[in-house]
Amino acid sequence: MRLLSFYQERSLRVVRAQGQYVWDEHGRRYLDLHIGHGVAFLGHRHPKVVEALKNQMDEIMTLSTAFQTRAREEMLKELENVRPEGMENVFLLNSGTEAVELSLKVARKVTGRRKFVAFRNSFHGRTVGALSVTWNRKYREPFEPLLEPVEFLPFNNVDALKAIDETVAAVIVEPVQGEGGVVPATDEFMKTLREVTRSKGALLIADEVQTGWRTGKIWAHQHFNVNPDMVTAGKAIGGGFPVSAVFLPDWIRERLDEGDHGTTYGGNPLAAAAVAASCRVLKEEGVVEKAELMGREFLRALSPLKERRIVREVRGLGLMVGIDLKVNPGPAIKTMQDEGVLALKAGTTVVRFLPPYVITKEDVEFAVATTNKGISTAESKVSAN
Ligand SMILES: *Cc1c(COP(=O)(O)O)cnc(C)c1O
């Protein structure tokens, strides 16, 4: 039996994980800046998350959200401190793409309009709705026709926002583009986007599945002082447990009816316990402040790499960091893995780091030294050609 995986095989068998590290079957330790596509942002197996899940398993593991549970009550209480401003309601799902699907459905229902606007180099997921607003043609084309109409505008281009008119149900944006190459939005772009969508009656969806919790604010849109109409979250919010969410305000909730959406697993007691525990960690351990601090440290330590011949740019926000190369980043990422650091690719040219907030200065130094070696490998490939 073979597992069908559409990710490139990394040839590494992991037997244990704790905090910012994983170990292979030979006992070798790796600094994990991949953390399962950014999921283990609180560190692998955070003790408070593990304890909450174990306790929850002893109580009840599965139940429809049609019933009340202690887990649900505690999650809602903890989310009070975490929810985006003005968003009194949350719907729980299981993956980022499902959260995006719901936000698109809600936008159509609430506005009575059909069209969506997204941005070049966006990534919002792989199910049909989310895929329709994802930029990469290679991901989309074999599955067309997808949702229509969708228009892609250039990211961070304020003038292009003029194309948003009264036919648009929603504009969906990542405050920092993740898969597309770790590209933070500019302040002017996000502020103008908020003004234009408001004046045209289009909803603004902030897709924070990747940016949530790790950029030095709880939500990355807070960097720009704009309040979106809906926020999608995923990856980090379950502390390693698969769970996602859509946050929305009362005025939107009032226009939704029974049957508009549903999910078998969404908001199950284990997910609720994981979210509650993760929110407690966020508050009690100063996670957001540490992400800000270590993110700045990481960027500072990486910045000398700008001098390397094949490096175009080093950029990021909080603990979401990318090195844009002039070449394919694959060989660099491979060398880094051989040297004990796990990173990810983003776009076609970017080495991406999604470090857990528990990384130390020593980890950062090790990561930078290793990245230097990785870049040397990538450079030698260029010279050989
Ligand atoms: C990862 C990601 C998704 C999709 O999340 P899945 O859990 O893989 O479905 C959606 N939007 C953004 C911005 C993401 O980074």
TrEMBL record:
<dbReference type="InterPro" id="IPR004636">
    <property type="entry name" value="AcOrn/SuccOrn_fam"/>
</dbReference>
<dbReference type="GO" id="GO:0008483">
    <property type="term" value="F:transaminase activity"/>
</dbReference>
<feature type="binding site">
    <location>
        <position position="263"/>
    </location>
    <ligand>
        <name>substrate</name>
    </ligand>
</feature>
<dbReference type="InterPro" id="IPR053458">
    <property type="entry name" value="Class-III_PLP-Dep_Atrans_LysJ"/>
</dbReference>
<keyword id="KW-0457">Lysine biosynthesis</keyword>
<comment type="pathway">
    <text>Amino-acid biosynthesis; L-lysine biosynthesis via AAA pathway; L-lysine from L-alpha-aminoadipate (Thermus route): step 4/5.</text>
</comment>
<dbReference type="GO" id="GO:0005737">
    <property type="term" value="C:cytoplasm"/>
</dbReference>
<feature type="binding site">
    <location>
        <position position="123"/>
    </location>
    <ligand>
        <name>pyridoxal 5'-phosphate</name>
    </ligand>
</feature>
<keyword id="KW-0808">Transferase</keyword>
<dbReference type="InterPro" id="IPR015421">
    <property type="entry name" value="PyrdxlP-dep_Trfase_major"/>
</dbReference>
<keyword id="KW-0963">Cytoplasm</keyword>
<protein>
    <recommendedName>
        <fullName>[LysW]-aminoadipate semialdehyde/glutamate semialdehyde transaminase</fullName>
        <ecNumber>2.6.1.118</ecNumber>
        <ecNumber>2.6.1.124</ecNumber>
    </recommendedName>
</protein>
<dbReference type="GO" id="GO:0019878">
    <property type="term" value="P:lysine biosynthetic process via aminoadipic acid"/>
</dbReference>
<dbReference type="InterPro" id="IPR005814">
    <property type="entry name" value="Aminotrans_3"/>
</dbReference>
<feature type="binding site">
    <location>
        <begin position="96"/>
        <end position="97"/>
    </location>
    <ligand>
        <name>pyridoxal 5'-phosphate</name>
    </ligand>
</feature>
<feature type="binding site">
    <location>
        <position position="126"/>
    </location>
    <ligand>
        <name>substrate</name>
    </ligand>
</feature>
<dbReference type="GO" id="GO:0042450">
    <property type="term" value="P:L-arginine biosynthetic process via ornithine"/>
</dbReference>
<dbReference type="GO" id="GO:0042802">
    <property type="term" value="F:identical protein binding"/>
</dbReference>
<comment type="pathway">
    <text>Amino-acid biosynthesis; L-arginine biosynthesis.</text>
</comment>
<dbReference type="InterPro" id="IPR050103">
    <property type="entry name" value="Class-III_PLP-dep_AT"/>
</dbReference>
<dbReference type="InterPro" id="IPR015422">
    <property type="entry name" value="PyrdxlP-dep_Trfase_small"/>
</dbReference>
<feature type="modified residue" description="N6-(pyridoxal phosphate)lysine">
    <location>
        <position position="235"/>
    </location>
</feature>
<keyword id="KW-0028">Amino-acid biosynthesis</keyword>
<feature type="binding site">
    <location>
        <position position="264"/>
    </location>
    <ligand>
        <name>pyridoxal 5'-phosphate</name>
    </ligand>
</feature>
<dbReference type="Pfam" id="PF00202">
    <property type="entry name" value="Aminotran_3"/>
</dbReference>
<keyword id="KW-0663">Pyridoxal phosphate</keyword>
<comment type="similarity">
    <text>Belongs to the class-III pyridoxal-phosphate-dependent aminotransferase family. LysJ subfamily.</text>
</comment>
<dbReference type="InterPro" id="IPR015424">
    <property type="entry name" value="PyrdxlP-dep_Trfase"/>
</dbReference>
<keyword id="KW-0032">Aminotransferase</keyword>
<feature type="binding site">
    <location>
        <begin position="207"/>
        <end position="210"/>
    </location>
    <ligand>
        <name>pyridoxal 5'-phosphate</name>
    </ligand>
</feature>
<dbReference type="InterPro" id="IPR037537">
    <property type="entry name" value="LysJ"/>
</dbReference>
<comment type="subunit">
    <text>Homodimer.</text>
</comment>
<keyword id="KW-0055">Arginine biosynthesis</keyword>
<dbReference type="GO" id="GO:0030170">
    <property type="term" value="F:pyridoxal phosphate binding"/>
</dbReference>
<comment type="function">
    <text>Involved in both the arginine and lysine biosynthetic pathways.</text>
</comment>
